[in-house]
Design goal:
With about 325 residues, the chain is of the alpha+beta class. The protein folds into 2 domains: about 170 residues, MutM-like, N-terminal (N-terminal domain of MutM-like DNA repair proteins), CATH 3.20.190.10; about 140 residues, Helicase, Ruva Protein, domain 3 (Orthogonal Bundle), CATH 1.10.8. The protein contains 9 helices and 12 strands. The chain has a 6-stranded antiparallel beta sheet with strand order 1-8-9-5-6-7. Strands 2-3-4-10 form a 4-stranded antiparallel beta sheet. Strands 11-12 form a two-stranded antiparallel ribbon. A hairpin with a 3-residue loop joins strand 8 and strand 9.
Length: about 325
């Protein structure tokens, strides 16, 4: 399942390429036909993420809410902006894109960017190579298509895709726990997380996955945060020292920012620059315990344990996390 950093990257991508533009909105699959008709021809004014949920505002009244769930992903085609350096050049998300030396009336390319649990990019023959077909035909069961004329964003397989009023979207946001990227005061938001964790008799490993406690943490980040804190996932929330919860919250803010910047969940703090670069291309080198069931702990050598917690796999070191 895509975790919080992915949804923030999607929001930033949509802000770069779709915000401020009138969009042709359709539902090739047909399951979102009424919602598409409600948004068709309107300007997207904002794209933002809270935890694993994406909110795309159309004016002051309507909001497209998307939750990718286990299988959802966005495919983007055309003149897709680069994240990272592209954001720094523009200075603000959603600003008009002008490439030095680029013809303003150039045809869109056929770059395809898949944004879901993993990000992949493909380049195929298209308008830039003489193929006049634009927009590209939908691939698979596309729930909603957003077309700016130069960029197409196709959503497939979400667990939620609906148009809400601004008030209804605010209610959804209010039910979510703090997101480090969306709060004004990191320490004050940390106090909220401390209170929501330490009042419960539920295992802390389960609480970190509860989106009403803290937003955006999924199975990978859960396992890695708890290992980095050397904390047993089965410890009841009320038995976790408040300072430990605050440290988890601040560590989550760091890992989330790293994931948004790099597009990769790289959670090992023991790697130097060369090691981080290798891990970017080798998923088996990215994590302390996640996905390493039966393999030796990178710290003590004890085999990593795989258990089940609330119907999800839980990875931990039985020696380091006590």
């Amino acid at each position: 399942m895509p975790e919080g950093h992915t949804v923030h990257r999607i929001a930033r991508q949509l802000a770069l390429d779709l915000v401020g533009r009138p969009l042709a909105v359709s539902s090739p699959q047909g399951r979102f036909a009424a919602g598409a008709a409600r948004l068709d021809g309107r300007v997207m004014t904002r794209a933002s993420a809270v935890g694993k949920q994406l909110f795309c505002a159309f004016g002051d009244d309507d909001v497209l809410r998307v939750h990718l769930g286990l299988y959802g992903a966005w495919d983007l085609y055309g003149d897709v902006s680069p994240l990272g350096d592209g954001e720094r050049v523009r200075g603000s998300l959603g600003a008009p894109r002008v490439r030095p030396g680029a013809a303003m009336d150039a045809q869109p390319s056929t770059r395809r960017l898949r944004m879901g649990e993993d990000e992949t990019e493909h380049t195929t023959a298209g308008a830039a190579e003489g193929d006049p077909t634009w927009p590209p035909p939908p691939l698979g069961q596309v729930r909603v298509r957003l077309d700016s004329g130069t960029v197409v964003a196709d959503l497939r397989g979400p667990s939620a895709c609906e148009v809400l009023t601004a008030d209804e979207a605010a209610l959804v946001r209010d039910r979510l726990g703090p997101d480090p990227q969306e709060v004004d005061d990191l320490d004050a938001a940390g106090d909220v997380v401390v209170e929501r964790v330490t009042r419960r008799n539920v295992p802390v490993g389960q609480l970190l996955m509860d989106q009403s406690v803290v937003a955006g943490i999924g199975n990978i980040y859960r396992a890695e945060l708890l290992f980095r804190a050397r904390l047993d996932p089965w410890t009841q929330g009320r038995r976790v020292p408040p300072d430990t919860v605050r440290a988890l919250w601040h560590d989550w803010s760091v890992l989330l920012a790293d994931g948004i910047r790099d597009g990769v969940m790289l959670t090992r703090e023991d790697l130097d620059a060369a090691g981080r670069e290798r891990a970017r291309h080798d998923p088996t080198a990215r994590h302390w315990v996640y996905g390493r069931g039966g393999l030796p702990c990178r710290v003590c050598g004890t085999p990593v344990v795989v258990e089940e917690m609330a119907a999800r796999k839980l990875y931990r070191c039985p020696v380091c996390q006590v």
